[in-house]
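Observation: inputs received (chain + magnesium ion).
Thought: call the complex predictor directly.
Action: predict_structure
Action Input:
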Amino acid sequence: MTASQPAGERDLAASATDPDTPDSDQWARLLRGSQGVAMHPGALNRLVSRTVELLHDAQRAEPLDVGAAAEAGALLVESHFTDSELLSRAIGLLSAGDGRAPSAELAGAFAAGWASALRERTLQEQEAIRLAADTARRDAERALRESEARFRALFESAAIGIGIGDVEGNILAANKALQQIFGARPEDMQGRRVNDLVHPEDTPGVWEAYEELVSGKREHFSFDKPYYRQDGEVVWTHLTCSLIRDDDGTPVYQVAMLEDITDRYRLQERLRHQATHDPLTGLPNRSAFFERLEAIFEDPEPGARFGLCYVDLDGFKVVNDSLGHEMGDQLLAAVALRLEAALRPLGHLVARLGGDEFVVLLEDCRGEAEAVAAAKTVLAALAKPVPIDGHRLAVGASVGVLERPVAATTPMAAVRAADLTLYRAKAEGRGRWTLFDPQRNARAVSRYAVSVRMPVALDRGEFFIDYQPLCLLADGSLAAVEALVRWRHPQLGVLGPDEFIGTAEETGLIMPLGRWVLEQACGQAADWVGEFGDRAPQVNVNLAVRQVRNAGLVSDIDRILRDTGLAPERLTLEITESAVVGPKDESLRALHSLVDMGVSLAVDDFGTGWSNLAYLRDLPVSGLKIAGSFVSDLKDSGREQVLGWRIVSGLVSLAHTLGLTVTAEGVENADHADRLRTMGCDRAQGWHFGRPMRPEQIAERIVKVGEE
Ligand code: C2E
Ligand code: MG
Ligand code: MG
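Observation:
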């Protein structure tokens, strides 16, 4: 075949010239019928001509041109006729004809060319595939290396600690930052397990979250968590842990990222400690206590109980006032130390509420007995004197104990109840504990309401005065009236003096209140004098202990008498025995001045207090009022009654021996009045002679008597 002559044209011309080789038609049929090769008819014709031509060339040569025959076979493979079926049919075509040897030889050469071309082609294809595969693999490896390098760089240079572990909890890798956080060398981290990293202060829930993560129930979690460093120090971290799954979704790895937050944590802790602790004693302060208390009330177990011991030091004020604040502070710190040492081991919280008040909180209290035991522990802890600066300071305490089901109360109500119970403990005598009593507490609560309201009550005109007759037993005539104060409380209704005088004395409000009563009573008595002249009753006014001890008493009364125009002889001041502690008392001088002024004094509730009668000699009193209890207790008959009357009779003669006028209080019936008259008692006061009443009613009585 020459380069200048297209193969197809020559083939077509040659095909008809040689009858020994299969002609072009047979080849064309064979190739067209072959499976799987689609060829343009022109290209097919050209292929047929070329094949036929090569075969003719091979045959025509002498000996047979094996090369040309092989080329014809290769030509078919080149044109994608690689089907072995086609080969056998082609061999059939070539071996047919007259069966001469050259035909078999031709077919053999053709087949060899075909096979060799096919092998060559297969090899080429394999090589191409191998090359492609190789390139692909190299690309993939490079990409992987790159991404791995990127990951390594990130992992190693990260400022944040990163650890990788499997889901069994084995630590597989830890970066430099993590090693630094743990203060560990790479080999220290080897073979360690996540579960070894438990810390007693671990945030509750952190290990539950961890278990959920490694079992595939959650994808990540985040906590602030402490760890022990290699040197045993504690490091605080912000930990974020994530789960890595494989393509099937099975959990395979965990990745932990840790940020060292120790400094931040310590600062936070310090601020928190400062906010929740009392700087003087180091104990939890009021707000920390309330936080803990309130936590008990959040979502309590059914039947949960708690206890409170409200502690107040006895006599702390004396130490503070006499030895100075510095000593007082040292004492408080020492007390705090003792309380904490005694109660902390029992699992109770000790807090300082302020001043000399402490509180013990019992969470999950098992009952009253446990709370009482805590109170006894408090008292025992403070039983021995506290040595400070060479002084041995005896400091006792009073404790109000409250033990209740959580469901029965609220934090505020509980603290107030404990406080009121403490108040009772103090009132009953120091150095003791008292248990919460709901009934007494209810009364005390109203006392609480009273003290809160009282300062404004006077300005708002909520007080008023009733007057109770004091009558001469001889003829039943009205000799005097006693001024008895009442309070129309906007919420609690009318309160008797027993319900608020005590609080008024404690809070000091008795001073303005007592002055007001004096002004009112003297004014009223003066009005009656103006209206009824000599028939007007005298007036008795009660003085509280504090009033008697007050330096301004004499001048106050002097002013009031002058302002109201009441003659001093018409006023009697009732004082209790306890108002006069001893003959040298300051107040005794004041009482003398009052008597000098013309005012009378009477001892109220005689027989209930001071048993030493000597004071009666020095006291410038002119009357005695026998306490109502002596008389009203005489209702019962029998031995008791006989004895009771003897006492009253004895008191009457004692008073007369001292030259005093005697008034019996609490006379409720005519029988009593008769007996008192018989034994020589001068005057009587009680329901039989008239209840405390409005001033108008007193006036009506005077008018009525005058008309008789
Ligand atoms: P007190 O001075 O001994 O007054 C007599 C008390 O006995 C009054 O009680 C009176 O209502 C009550 N009473 C009178 N007759 C009878 C009776 O036949 N049977 C019974 N069971 N009780 C009778 P009240 O008004 O409750 O006063 C109680 C105390 O309050 C007074 O006792 C007095 O110590 C004090 N108080 C009253 N007003 C004042 C005041 O203005 N200043 C001061 N500091 N204390 C006052
Ligand atoms: Mg009185
Ligand atoms: Mg009395």
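Thought: report the result.
Final Answer: Residues 604-605, 625, 665 surround magnesium ion (ligand 3) (CB under 6 Å). The radius of gyration is 59 Å.
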